[in-house]
Amino acid sequence: MSRPRDVLDALHATIVGQDDVVEALVLTLIAGGHVLLEGAPGVAKTLACRALAAAAGGVFRRVQFTPDLLPSDIVGTRIFDQKTGEFATVLGPLFANVVLADEINRAPAKVQSALLEGMQERRVTIGPQTHDLPAPFVVLATMNPFDTEGTYALPLAQLDRFLAKVVVAYPSRDEERAIVDRFGAGEPPLRANVATLDDVLRWQREAHDVFVDAKIRDYAVDLTRATRTADLVAHGASPRAALALVALARARAYLEGRTFAVPDDVRDVAPAVLRHRISYDDRIAIGGGDPEDVVRRIIASVPAP
Amino acid sequence: MSFGRAAVGLAAAALLTATAGAASLRTLHVDALSMRADRVHVAVGEVFHLAIHVRVRENVAALDELVVPDVGTMKLEGDERNVTSSPAGTDVVETLTLEPTVAGAFTFKGAYLDAIDARTRKPSRFSANPVRIVVDAPAPVSVAGVDAAWRLVLLAGLVAGGLALIGGGLVLVVALRRRAQPVVPVVAPVPPAPAPPPRTPRTDVEDALRAYRTAPGQAALTRLRGALFVAAGTNAGATLRDALAATSDGALRAALIAAERTAFGPAHERDAASAELVAATESWLSAALAGSSR
User: Fold this and answer.
1) pLDDT tens-place string over residues B4-32
2) Largest CB tally within 10 Å, which of A239, B22, B131, B202?
3) ipTM
């Protein structure tokens, strides 16, 4: 029986640095949610997702989102079988345990909507039939904040479906040097099947049993509510953010081997939970402000219990 | 010093103060100005002390503005002024040693000082409370060659003369001061606040632990955990990681971790966590005490 730490170690063996990203991926896997990774090209977003998929085992599918993608390209379709004279269902790449939706904002809203519906409901309907998606089911979506031409921005309601949004920053100089050493002679093999799907499902069950005191739940709610009255915020986070804070706090406590969550758990996951659930004021764009500063200020404004 | 010289000296001091005018007044934060006698019932010829206490928030070397009351017919045996300065303020205690020369009730007007009140930025006169002394006649003594009637006449003459001098002196002082200074509000004296015992994070933890042991409820736990956080160097609203980052004291870190477990752990683990918290906190207090005594 493997532990979440084993997956974490496997990711660290592949990815240089990016500790926050690696931890966020494992936490989201434990919490049973989906992650959105935003970062410049070449900062190992896709590699991190592939490493997680390899370590966690199960079926992995990658979908490159493009403007000409159709909903049926990801959920599946029905084709007419001339031999049997009946329609047969062909399941799309969404039927996997780990789905990498690369550059999710390059597909039109109709495709995004089909993906996000599957993420939320964990089932899809193809023709007259509804199909359950496999368990565990994790969507790891990436997007690039720079090349916005020809992209379709994800609406707030759809971003809300992602449990966490992780900003993948450029590595430090030392990390970049280590990347050159590690990947200079080609990509090293990923550490595969460190855990099994049963392990992942067990972690999810056990993490769900982590005790969260009422004061911690109050803290999560206060943080969420603080986003609605903060300066430079047009629309604050929905109650789903409070649920996400508690779910990820549980996962973090579980990852650290605790049976209860502490305020640090909530505070640590708060940026990843809140940043994509807030609609920022136009003054941010006009004045060139940093949305991350807004999130930091909101978190700092709420005293921990 | 005789009464006459004392009265003239005080009047001159008052005159000098008055002519200095409001323009030369210092700005002071007067927290207390009080006056008391160590005895309120004395006999003629017995010495007593009249003490005047002033406390200002400023750190000053002297308080020359302080005007002591007219001592009338009393004989001034001594005048001692002690000034204690610290960053928190200055305490001035002036002690007059007096010997009554005539019997009767005597009321000392309150000592006062003129300054710009730091609170209102206006020139003000701060006055102490008046003090009343009852002076008994001296025990009868046999004076050879002087008959009783003559002694009574002599005593009456002394009393009348003394009263006349007091009245004259007071009239002179009041007239001079009224002419020289505008009327300023009199601020009631504030009794000196007793200095609170010095509090330290350690004493706060001690008190909080005592309260927690007496009634280990949620409020007491919150107080104890908060005191430990402050002892580590963090404030309310910080998290355990902040507190652990702020201190390298192993015993305190153990107490902080135990407090976190007690505060947020599941109910079935709380008794054990609570016992661990008490033990870890006691351990830190003992270590801190040993460290401070070395």
Assistant:
1) 444 444 444 444 444 444 457 888 888 78
2) B131
3) 0.82
